[in-house]
TrEMBL record:
Superkingdom as given in the UniProt entry: Bacteria
Reactions accelerated catalytically: alpha-D-glucose 6-phosphate = beta-D-glucose 6-phosphate
Organism from which the protein derives: Vibrio fortis
The entry's keywords: Isomerase
Active site positions: H163, E265
Keyword presence, Metal-binding: no
Name of the protein in question: Putative glucose-6-phosphate 1-epimerase
Length: 294
């Protein structure tokens, strides 16, 4: 996405402005290290472009910036659950309006912090009190940290994901390594399967890799770079691409969109809310993903 031409609604500093794209406000970062943009709707990273590189993040050309529909592409924040284990799918965080808490900048980059706390809308969906922060560190690499805190008087359970869509030149030439040997195949009713050390896609994929290595790499031959994804606070990594049939069935993805994207997600996976990670009152958990190109 090229957001550089949008006029600033609010100037926060030399490097940080608020802009508006259709019905959504975005925090736009223009820095000598990298440019980036984060939607306040969903705390959704929609762009990260290090100096001299094409964007590392894929956004659908048909994403709906209406302030109601979850954005297709970028880094959706899936929380307090991941998947279709409750409604709405992937939780309410990606459909909520977040607040800009602070921004900090230096010669090495910019940090943007967004917040979401318990409100009437969240209580109507999930009857627990919480505080969520998304810290986005923009520099030579992109580091996204979701920190959630139980502010209730009772424990609650959650799952979640940082649902990163990576931008690749040609999915047929993209080779992924580091995802680990075992995965739960959502296309085979959750069957546990064994995979190889390398993955080159020839069809749709929707897998929960249960033993990922510390760093997952996507060698992108067409763009002559390797994207690295380092996750923390997770218990799995989800890899997803809808392929031609899936893309054609989505109203917010162009039919050929699958050719230039691959989701590699930092995931706290649970088959049900009851099997999610439990946080005691006052306890916090961080889910992180760090993305870079070399």
């Amino acid at each position: 996405m090229d957001l550089s031409t949008l006029p600033a609604v609010t100037v926060l500093s030399d490097n940080v402005t608020i802009v508006e794209h259709e019905d959504v406000k975005l925090v736009r970062v223009i820095h000598e290290k990298a440019n980036a943009a984060i939607s306040l709707f969903g705390a959704h990273v929609v762009s990260y472009q290090p100096k001299g590189q094409q964007d590392l993040i894929w956004m659908s050309q048909q994403a709906k910036f209406d302030g109601k529909t979850a954005l297709r592409g970028g880094i959706p924040v899936c929380w307090p659950w991941f998947g279709r284990i409750a409604a709405p799918a992937h939780g309410f965080a990606r459909n909520s309006e977040w607040q800009l808490i602070e921004h900090r900048e230096s010669e090495v980059g910019v940090i943007v912090s967004l917040g979401l706390s318990t409100n009437d809308n969240t209580l109507a969906v999930w009857p627990h009190r919480f505080d969520a922060r998304l810290n986005v560190e923009i520099g030579d690499e992109l580091k996204v940290t979701l920190e959630v805190t139980n502010t209730d008087s009772q424990p609650w359970k959650c799952s979640g994901a940082l649902h990163t869509y990576l931008n690749v030149g040609d999915i047929h030439q993209a080779k992924t390594t580091g995802m680990g040997p075992e995965y739960i195949d959502s296309l085979q009713d959750g069957k546990v399967c064994q995979g190889g050390d390398e993955l080159v896609l020839t069809d749709t994929i929707d897998r929960v890799y249960t033993q990922p290595e510390a760093v997952i790499s996507v060698a992108d031959a067409k763009l002559a770079r390797t994207l690295t994804v380092e996750n923390q606070g997770h218990n799995s990594a989800v890899l997803w691409n809808p392929w031609a049939e899936g893309a054609a069935g989505m109203g917010d993805m162009q039919d050929d969109g699958y050719l230039t994207m691959l989701c590699v997600e930092s995931t706290l996976h649970a088959p049900s809310i009851e099997q999610g990670k439990e946080l005691q009152p006052g306890e916090s958990h961080q889910l992180l993903t760090t993305i870079a190109a070399k």
